[in-house]
């Protein structure tokens, strides 16, 4: 064998070893020759009367186990690429499709284990840069107001402005309550939820309505139906693992998916179903092509504070109250009601999310805090985990 060929082979083996040891990390750059639109038209209409919890069970999962990554045993610090724990854990490398030519997320899948659930409990990883999913913003050329794309913005950020598509709404729920807050979550709907070991990658996110994410906010609807079913079953049966796949379904070139189809199959066969989760909200017409609503609402240009950017994620532990909901009063259509904007405020928690206190502003953090171990979450999420606002941070 020639020296050149030996060097090439050596470098190839080193690269392969590094890939296997580091696990799968998705490519967040769009692939122009790939598109993820699975349908050319809507195949199943949603109505509140027919699907009050925003999902429908379509049958068995039809999962092919051989298409999934294999289980492996490693240490916690190797799998998480952080910390010092040498505890042995059984895990799989979750797979996330590359973004397509429209910057849309594709399928996410893997095997969920008890160790993966345990490692995700109590803390959240830091979001990667530029994690906003397709449809979260609209884009315009500053010079003449023409519609632009996310790629235009990336190439010429000084010539293109981006406008948040999110806005505050009041959604009438099927349980007779009204949910006040922002229309969209960066659906955590993580396609694979954080509580199941899903990672904070853009490739694991879509722009999803709050009701698509949590239904009536009772842990029984939306994506939480199947997420909590899997979570509960594995916690009750630690030796069981679950093959799990979540796939957003787009129509044509639309940036916001109409549904997410989730398939789950437990290793003992007890869970075996395919669920279609509707990405919609009662009383509103979603602009699936561009994001936001099909209405005359005027959206303001993005500001540096990003105050209207909400990041509501799945809740790992049940809460005793139903955040952001109240009973409908006879004149609810005309009276002003409080929103849950404060509960959606992003706060910062040190020590990989394990600190008992949270902070509103990074600049107020103590000098010794390791910013690389800072975790972002909503204030509501922090409060539900028993955390308190730091008494040493000024409130004004």
Automatic annotation (TrEMBL):
InterPro entries for this protein:
DNA/RNA_non-sp_Endonuclease_sf, Endonuclea_NS_2
Q: Which residues form the Type VII secretion system protein EssD-like domain?
A: 173-264
Disordered, as annotated region: 301-340
Gene3D superfamilies per record: Extracellular Endonuclease, subunit A
Please verify whether the record's keywords include Signal: yes
Q: Where is the composition biased (Acidic residues)?
A: 301-312
Please, which domain of life does this record's source organism belong to? Answer: Bacteria
State a single Gene Ontology molecular function.
deoxyribonuclease I activity
UniProt entry tagged with the keyword Acyltransferase: no
Q: Which UniProt keywords apply?
A: Hydrolase, Signal
Q: Which residues form the signal peptide?
A: 1-30
Q: What class of enzyme is it?
A: hydrolase
What EC number(s) are associated with this protein in UniProt? Answer: 3.1.21.1
Instruction: Please state what the protein is called.
Output: Deoxyribonuclease
Question: What broad taxonomic lineage does this protein's source fall under?
Answer: Bacteria, Bacillati, Bacillota, Bacilli, Lactobacillales
């Amino acid at each position: 064998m020639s020296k050149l060929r030996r060097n090439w082979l050596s470098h190839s083996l080193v690269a392969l070893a590094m890939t296997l040891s580091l696990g799968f990390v998705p490519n967040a750059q769009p692939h122009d020759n790939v598109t993820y639109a699975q349908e050319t038209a809507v195949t199943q209409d949603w109505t509140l009367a027919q699907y009050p919890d925003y999902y429908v069970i379509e049958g068995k999962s039809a999962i092919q186990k051989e298409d999934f990554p294999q289980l492996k045993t490693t240490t916690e610090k190797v799998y998480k690429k952080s910390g010092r724990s040498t505890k042995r854990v059984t895990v799989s490398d979750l797979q996330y499709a590359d973004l397509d030519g429209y910057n849309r997320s594709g399928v996410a899948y893997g095997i969920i284990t008890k160790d993966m659930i345990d490692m995700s409990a109590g803390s959240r990883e830091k979001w990667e840069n530029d994690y906003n999913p397709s449809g979260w913003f609209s884009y315009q050329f500053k010079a003449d107001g023409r519609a632009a794309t996310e790629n235009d913005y990336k190439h010429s950020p000084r010539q293109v402005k981006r406008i948040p598509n999110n806005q505050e709404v009041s959604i009438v729920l099927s349980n007779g309550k009204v949910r006040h807050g922002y229309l969209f979550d960066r659906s955590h709907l993580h396609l694979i939820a954080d509580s199941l070991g899903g990672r904070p990658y853009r490739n694991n996110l879509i722009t999803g309505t709050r009701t698509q994410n949590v239904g009536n906010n009772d842990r029984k609807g939306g994506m939480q139906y199947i997420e909590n079913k899997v979570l509960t079953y594995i916690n009750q049966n630690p030796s069981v693992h679950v093959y799990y796949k979540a796939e957003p379904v787009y129509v044509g070139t639309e940036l916001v998916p109409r549904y997410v189809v989730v398939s789950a199959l437990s290793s003992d066969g007890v869970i075996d179903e395919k669920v279609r989760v509707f990405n919609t909200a009662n009383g509103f017409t979603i602009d699936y092509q561009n994001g936001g609503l099909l209405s005359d609402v005027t959206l303001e240009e993005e500001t540096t504070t990003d105050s209207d950017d909400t990041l509501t994620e799945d809740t790992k532990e049940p809460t005793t109250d139903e955040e952001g909901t109240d009973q409908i009063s006879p004149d609810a259509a005309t009276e002003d009601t409080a929103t849950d904007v404060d509960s959606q405020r992003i706060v910062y928690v040190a020590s990989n999310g394990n600190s008992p206190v949270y902070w509103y502003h990074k600049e107020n953090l103590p000098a010794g805090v390791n910013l690389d171990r800072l975790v972002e979450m909503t204030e509501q999420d922090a409060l539900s985990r028993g955390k308190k606002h730091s008494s040493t941070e000024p409130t004004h």
